[in-house]
Amino acid sequence: MIQDDTFIHLCQPDSCKSCGACCGLYNYADSTKGSLVERLRKRTSLFHQTVSDRADLVSFSEAIKTMEDQTKRYEVIYCCEYLGFLDRSERRIGCLLHPLQNGGADMRDASFYGRELCDGHFCPSYHYISREEKMALINIIDDWYLYGLCITDIDLVKTYFRLISEGVYEMPPPSIFKHGRLKELALSFFSLKINWPFISPSVHRFGKYYFDGSQYMIKHVDYESLGCDRSRFDRIFSSLSSEFGSKEELKEAEGIIQHMIDVFVTAYLKERKAHQK
Ligand code: SF4
Ligand code: SF4
User: Fold this and answer.
1) How would residue 209 be classed by pLDDT, with cut points 50, 70 and 90?
2) Same domain (yes/no): 158, 256
3) Does the reported pTM lie above 0.70?
4) How does strand 205-206 pair with strand 83-85?
5) 77 domain residue, yes or no
6) 118 lines ligand 2 (CB under 6 A)
7) How far apart, in whole angstroms, are the C-alpha atoms of residue 160 and residue 204?
8) How many domains would you assign to the chain?
9) CA-CA distance, 227 to 215, in Å (whole number)?
């Protein structure tokens, strides 16, 4: 990818957070935040204690595979043992083999994907999420765990910004999400990725995907069995790994999303009016 002055680095956008989704971060069967923090904390500490050059990586890798639970969500997706915390305050995750972590020595060629793939990979979010949407999301979310879940969910990001933009007749400028009420409201929407009441308990679900034992596919909401038409929030429901037990649950879910959109639109219009005075 050609990078220009306006390039936004989604992997490491600022000092508050970063993403490690394509290194397999969320592919552990237990990918709750508490479990991932423990895992990354222990391996980062072991890395700093035992690795001083490339020759130490084989024993580090073996130790991680013995020490950590290797149960995955999808067997076909690799979980890289070299993903860890980059800073003492554990706000940024990233590659422990990266030259910036090792006094200029690039050790990524020792990894499963190899240096070239690790260095040159730009996920679809780089291409499909617009510049304004990227900047807005970076302003909204400060936590690495939630950030990685959302920045890789193109449907969720694009649908949310489309719905609020339709309500206020413009794409809200990214700067309004930096702090205050509008940031809070948008953050509560994206936090549904973690606290959505209708989230499927299946370990083989991740966003709109599920794994059938050999491949992963898109899981659609079965509106027919609920006796309903496709919801206007269908993309959001899929992104949130929704599972509805009844028509009433679906209606309740639609009510939650609509309410969040309406509250944001009202707050935004009020702020815009106040600024115009
Ligand atoms: S999933 Fe995308 S944003 Fe996240 S680390 Fe990979 S390339 Fe970067
Ligand atoms: S070696 Fe590659 S896959 Fe592993 S953490 Fe580093 S960038 Fe990610």
Assistant:
1) confident
2) yes
3) yes
4) unpaired
5) yes
6) yes
7) 25
8) 2
9) 29
